[in-house]
Amino acid sequence: MALPGVAARWHGWDVTAGGSLATRLGSTWFGAGLSNHARERLAALAELREVDPGAVLLREGADTERFGVLLRGLLALRVAVAGRGTATLMTGEPGDVFGWSAAVPPYRATSTV
């Protein structure tokens, strides 16, 4: 889901589940505390996407113009560690936000998703 003022739009992944996007946001920890109005405004800016397993959504160090809220499935946040290779920092679950660097200067991804 894109933040207001961020040009690119992006959102979570389950295109088969029922209910409006605003309703589905309300069922996540991220959206549960938002007012209906706020969820509707965010949903109007969002784009629902489905991705293949193993797809890279964001790359560490790359410019980041969007963030997402995972609606279904899992995702891994990974970083490059000198002398060790790639390490998984965390596994995201439904309701988790990723790509938050889109809202924080210098707008570069801090991990690969």
Question: What structural keywords apply?
Answer:
disordered N terminus, 3 helices
Written account of the structure:
Helices cover 18% and strands 17% of the residues. By secondary structure, the protein is of the alpha+beta class. The strands form two sheets. The protein has a two-stranded antiparallel ribbon. A two-stranded antiparallel sheet has the order 2-3. Strand 2 and strand 3 (85-92) form a beta hairpin. The longest helix has 10 residues, at 36-45. The protein is globular. The two termini are 15 Å apart.
User: Biggest β-sheet, characterized?
Assistant: 2 strands, antiparallel
Overall residue-averaged pLDDT value: 83
Radius of gyration from CA coordinates:
14 Å
Strand order of the largest sheet: 1-4
The tally of helices reads: 3
Q: Structural class, from secondary structure content?
A: alpha+beta
Query: What fraction of residues sit in β-strands?
Result: 15-25%
Number of DSSP E strands: 4
Global outline: globular
The ordered string of helix (H) and strand (E) elements is HHHEEEE
Q: Cα distance, first to last residue?
A: 15 Å
Estimate percent helicity. 10-25%
The stretches of 5 or more residues where confidence is low (pLDDT under 50) are 1-17
